[in-house]
Amino acid sequence: MRFDGTLTSWNDERGFGFIEAAQGGDAIFVHIKAFGAQAGRPQVGQRLTFEVELGPQGKKRAHKVERAAVPRAAKAARSSGSARAAHVDRTPSPARWGTASLFAIPLFLVVALVVSALWRPPVWLAGLYLGASVLAFVLYASDKAAAQRNAWRVSEQTLHGVAILGGWPGALLAQQWLRHKSVKAEFRATFWFTVLVNVSAFVVLCSPQGQVLWRV
Fold it and tell me: What residue segments make up the domains of the chain, in order of their start?
């Protein structure tokens, strides 16, 4: 099965780069050998079609890469376009917001307001959620950058651990705006489980019975 994508980074000296697939998800590693005997060096911003295979370490990489054909009208527009147009073409747009992703944070805010009105939880909980969310966003951004450089990655256990401690709103925003970890079904299922656990724990611990446990 072939996929469409854009070459978002390329190290010409080392002969490898990364492709942003049109359907989203993690950036896909591509080596110069995957282009075969095609003329010309790969260029950032090029539209490509490719297949996906597993590398020696079990990681996905592009295979049988070909440059996508560019219609004449589009080619003329691109040649006469400004540098601004090229910049926009290389900038990945946010992933589409699914129903759960779109309403999760607003619904949690409603739950938090109701809980605050009923039981008045400690103010530091708000700081915990804010700090953990900022940390989660930074970790997602760092992991995506590491994936593009083929460097050491942030483990999924760490990402889920920060989410379950209250960083899931920041993680959710990072998934959508950075287009990272927003497609992998197994990861997403575990992520939503951490959201469920965290929100349930928030309600229980803020209840009168839960606050008694804190004092004990």
Answer: 3-90, 99-215
Closest CA to 177 of 87, 90, 92: 92
Digit-coded pLDDT (tens) for 88-109: 444 456 666 777 888 999 999 9
Output DSSP code: residue 144. H
Residue 85 has what pLDDT? Answer: 44
Fold (CATH) for 3-90: OB fold (Dihydrolipoamide Acetyltransferase, E2P) (2.40.50)
Instruction: For residues 59 and 212, give the distance between their C-alpha atoms in angstroms, rounded to a whole number.
Output: 48
CA proximity to 111, closest of 129, 133, 96: 129
Cα separations (Å) of 5 from 81, 160, 166?
Answer: 21, 28, 34
Residue with the two structure tokens 């969310």: 133
